[in-house]
Each structure stands twice: as structure tokens, then as C-alpha cells.
Task: structure prediction
Amino acid sequence: MTRPAIAAIGMASWDRMLVVDDYPEAGSYAVVRQMLEGPGGTTANTVAALARLGVPVTFAAKVGDDREGAALRDGLAAEGCDVSAVTTRAGEPTDLGIIIISGSGERAERTIYWQQGARLRYGDPLPIAELFAHDLVVVDVDDARLRQLIVDLPIHVAPRTRLLGTLTLLTELPPEQALALAVRHDYLCGNERELRYVTGETNLERALVRLRERMLLDQLRLAFISRGPLGCLVVTEEAAEAVPAFPVAAVDTTGAGDAFAAGVALGLIERRAPGEIGRLANALGALAVRGLGARASLPQRAELDALLGRS
Ligand code: ADP
Result:
């Protein structure tokens, strides 16, 4: 029997979005052009992108005991995702992102105000054996003790299971601790700003050197660092290879990094070459920024393959 492909452990949030032309100066104002809301959250967006592409995916997360939590879970189930490990935390609201979207094209930006709600934490029961029966486990957890427990698991319970860690939530931790956790995953993905934070380096070149030094000593073997319209860097012990982005008219960059992570996960389970995984991740990132909201423009497989020039 073949093993199921991908499990993801992480977060689901509800997104409320305001669209403005430009960010106002502090103390000034901006006219709101549009307001909308919908399902979001880093890991949930990645899971939704994979499900949309037809990849079987199992998700473990916490939602609040409210309308948004139910909508998040039902939405992912409707996309075809296994949500049996998405559980409700009584007495807490669903995690909420208030997202201010400004500009378009090259100037497209988004800024998030994060009202923290129900999230997985150390001590929450998780179906570990079931999750680690997948080939690849995406780990996107902000609780440091839970993250430590998860990165220590494969050697004990599932030596064949590979971990893909995201950098995003590690920036909640002090840099030294964040880097020590980051290099315990087999693969990493995140953006340039997050890499600079966890390495404690303001300069990208030095941040890459620091990461590659750690690759020699630790579990990490491959990292995918996104750079918005510049594409991404594929980092191995030997080198950092730049892979250009796909040109696209960006409307809203919310969820670009989450779609990028889905592309990395897909490329890894399909056992593609590192540069090809970077290209696939860039393609998903580009497709994700075409519409308002994190998930509106996520593609189906045929559309992704068409952009990649595959039939
Ligand atoms: P994050 O959402 O974490 O800030 P990025 O902005 O780096 O992540 O976006 C992730 C990926 O999405 C990029 O590596 C790139 O491939 C793609 N992407 C993002 N913005 C654009 C853009 N304006 N044009 C083309 N591709 C983009």
C-alpha cells in the first residue's frame, strides 16, 4: 500500500481584509475601497492550495468555538481535505488576521494585524501515529515546546517521514531558539525577511552563509527562501541558486508565501530536483497573488501545469 502524501500541523485563521490605495502616514487616514472576509491562516492556506491541486492532505489545527471556526473547517472539508484533526478549543475565539491590502502590481503589499486566538499548543492531544504515517509533514507551529516535540518525533516514531518546516511562526521566538528549531527540519521554506530574522543577520548574503553552515551540522538539507517578485533562492550546503519569479499582475500578495509552501511540498513529494521545486513554488506563488484574499485565485492542477509549460 502506498503511504498517504502530506499532513500539515499548524494554524487556521479567519481573515478580515481592508483594501486601500496606499498606507497612510501614522496619524493620517486612508479611504477604504473594499472590505471582505474569508478563511485564511498560514497552514490552512497551504493545505487549501494542495487540496485544490488534488493532493490528499490531512490537517491538524485548533479553531475557536464560533462561526468562523466552523466555516474554516467546513471550507477545507469542501476542498477535499481530511479535517478530522481540526478540533475546537472551547472558550477561545478563532484566530483572526486583520489584513490591510494596498497598492497593486510591483507596489502590491499587505500588512497583518494579528489577534491571536485558538492555536495548537504543547499538551494538546494530536493523532501523532496517523500524522507521521504521511511521507511529508508540514510543520507550522508557533508554540516552541510543541515545535520541539514535533521535530524530535521522526527518529523515534517514523524515520522515513520528512519534515517541511516554515519559518513564518518561528519569528515569534528569539532568533537563536528559532534557528535551532529551524535546522531540525529536513526542509525549510520562508521569506527573506524571516531568514534574516532567524539567522540574526541583516544582510541576505551573510544570512545564507549562516544557514548553509548550519546545514553541515544539522538535519536541514534544503531550504527555499522566497523573495516576492524576485522569485526565490534554493539553498543547499553547496550553494544558493536564484530561481526567477513568473511575471504576474499582482492584486493582493496575502497568502503568496503559503501557496509557495504548498509548491515546495508538492515538489518534494513528487521527488523533483531542487531547482524545479523552486520553479513550481514560484508558479503557485504567482498564481496566488492574482486575486483578493489568500485563496481566491489558487489554481487547479491544469492551470499550474499550463504555467509551468507542462501538458
Ligand atoms: P510572503 O507572502 O511570505 O511574503 P513572498 O512575497 O516572498 O512571500 O511570495 C512568495 C512567492 O510568491 C515568491 O517567491 C514569488 O514566487 C511569488 N510572488 C509573490 N509576489 C509576486 C509578484 N508580485 N510577482 C510574481 N510572483 C510573486
User: Anything to note?
Assistant: Residues 108, 191, 226-229, 231-232, 245-246, 248, 250, 253, 256-257, 260, 282, 285-286, 289 surround adenosine-5'-diphosphate (CB under 6 Å). The mean pLDDT is 95. The two ends are 28 Å apart (CA to CA). The CA atoms of residues 24 and 30 lie 5 Å apart.
